[in-house]
Amino acid sequence: MFDLDGTLVDTAQDITNALNFALEPYDIKILTVEDTIKLIGEGVSRLVEKVLPVEKMHLKSDFIRRFLEYYSEHLTNNSKEYPHIRETLENLTNLRKAVISNKREDLSKRLLEKLGLSEYFDLIIGSDTASERKPSAVPVLYVINKLGVSIEESIIVGDSNYDIEAGRKAGVKTVAVTYGYRHRESLTEADYIIDDIRELVPLVQKL
Asked: Where do the domains of the chain lie?
């Protein structure tokens, strides 16, 4: 099971552009990519709550609408898979694979389709697929049930503490990648930490 943003695909610039488009009418300071990276991970609703000042929280629904409209139209303007993602997925062809994102399901699927990556996955789910999102164990257990595999033979790979926490709550092995949006020190709860996605192949073969 793979996280999407910060694990498979670097989406930070396109998310930043969409946030800044949504912010434009409200006289709120625009964001840099570095700002956005600190905010990504818990889905669009939480993202907006972090961006909007308390006194402007009544604009949340309009902000989300503007953000989603823009982001949906500019999904892959700058987004690209991280190095060696495709070859790693090709080297894991004998395994069932899924994506668990806190991005909405339709956007997750469209993003992966546009980048030619969706064919590698048996299942792609988003924040609105299961009843809860990461760091809850619910989406992890949802995927395990859908694919008919056991907890013991399941692994989640992600770049954030939300992925690791979701995996640990579900009782699956956890692998953190360090090239994404979080610093290594926030990933220490993972069972394994890798700096290069290619390290996943020999690791999986050992487990």
From this structure: 11-73, 78-206
Residue 202, classified by CB atoms within 10 Å of its CB into exposed (0-12), middle (13-18) or buried (19+), is exposed
Q: What is the pLDDT of residues 139-176, one digit of tens each?
A: 999 999 999 999 999 999 999 999 999 999 999 999 99
Q: Give me the helices (H) in the chain, please.
A: 12-23, 33-39, 44-51, 60-73, 85-90, 105-114, 138-147, 161-170, 200-206
Q: Which residue type, as a one-letter code, is found at position 18?
A: A
Query: Could you tell me which of 153, 164, 170 has the C-alpha nearest to residue 190?
Result: 164
pLDDT digit string (tens) for 53-70?
899 999 999 999 999 999
Q: Strand 80-81 relative to strand 123-125: parallel, antiparallel, unpaired? A: unpaired
Selected catalytic residue, list 3, 5, 14, 163: 3
Q: Cα–Cα distance between 84 and 198 in angstroms, integer?
A: 7
Helix count and strand count (H, E) for the chain? 9, 7
Q: What is the DSSP letter of 91?
A: T
Whether 3 is a known active-site residue: answer yes
Q: How far apart are CA 188 and CA 111, in angstroms?
A: 29
Class of domain 78-206: alpha beta
